[in-house]
Amino acid sequence: MFITFEGIEGCGKSTQVRLLADFLKDGTATILVTREPGGTEIGGKIRSILLDSVNAKIDSLTELLLYEADRAQHVEEIIRPCLEAKKIVLCDRFSDATLCYQGYARGFDLELIERLHKIILKGLKPDMTFLLDCPVEIGLGRAWKRIALAAKNRKEDRFEREETGFHEKVRQGYLHLAKAEPARFHIIDASQDIPAIHHDIASIVSSRLKSRNARTH
Ligand SMILES: Nc1ncnc2c1ncn2[C@@H]1O[C@H](COP(=O)(O)OP(=O)(O)O)[C@@H](O)[C@H]1O
Ligand SMILES: [Mg+2]
User: Which residue in 112, 128, 130, 174 has its CB near the most CB atoms, within 10 A?
Assistant: First the structure.
């Protein structure tokens, strides 16, 4: 089972990945928690290039290819082996993020990104994707608070520095993708408080796991 978490900066992805992992660990399933960019050692180096605002001058094609390079390594080194070992993989951002940020927001041809994904993913697709949807001002407000609290030497704020219109395009892109694939996407109201969001996600995952177990037994 491959579950991904998507949405704008500060919508609560990382918080909810942690809570769902704890919730599932109460059962018997083996959970792997990972993220993009930076799910591997090589990816960690790519992440620091991508998210540090000292790299504001990064070319947008360079940015796209670095995200895909990170993903290629991540899929082969971590995600595919874990899924083959029957683990539940929880991933904080995945391929939909590239479609939204580099496609809908930066303006790259969506077909080009889809072509890259065909090569990199070789048919791999999340079983479920939670889109944590909230207004841009709410997400960015939370994200800036988090950045202010983080250690000064961990600057991961290049995207937060983009203008509101950019984040609005990302949000609309995600809603568009969710509409196109209603069976995979679950749109969650991320303006709720943390426990309410967790409750929504945990109940959807629980019922999915139950129906899957019923089919296999
Ligand atoms: N539903 C929520 N309501 C209020 N604050 C939240 C909520 N979810 C997360 N936060 C806080 O907002 C900040 C950003 O959350 P985070 O999970 O890091 O978002 P993301 O990974 O989507 O950028 C964190 O400081 C977190 O504690
Ligand atoms: Mg996060």
Answer: 130
Query: Could you read off the pLDDT tens digit of each residue along the chain, which spans 217 residues?
Result: 999 999 999 999 999 999 999 999 977 679 999 999 999 999 999 999 999 999 999 999 999 999 999 999 999 999 999 999 999 999 999 999 999 999 999 999 999 999 999 999 999 999 999 999 999 999 999 999 988 888 766 678 999 999 999 999 999 999 999 999 999 999 999 999 999 999 999 999 999 999 988 887 7
For the beta carbon of residue 137, count every other beta carbon within 10 angstroms: 11
Q: Which atom of ligand 1 is nearest to the CA of 194?
A: 1
Q: Residue 8 CA: which ligand is closest?
A: 1
Which atom of ligand 1 is least distant from the CA of 17? 17
CATH number of the domain where residue 184 is located: 3.40.50.300
What is the rounded end-to-end Cα distance, in angstroms, of the chain? 16
Who lines ligand 1 at CB under 6 A?
7, 9-15, 142-143, 145-146, 193-194, 197
Nearest CA to ligand 1 atom 23: 10
Domain that holds residue 115: 2-216
Residue 135 CA from chain centroid, whole number: 17
Task: Write the residue with the smallest CA distance to atom 8 of ligand 1.
Answer: 12
Quote the strand ranges of 29-179, DSSP E.
Answer: 31-35, 88-92, 128-133
Counting the structural domains of the chain, the total is: 1
Collapsed DSSP state (helix, strand, coil) of residue 132: strand
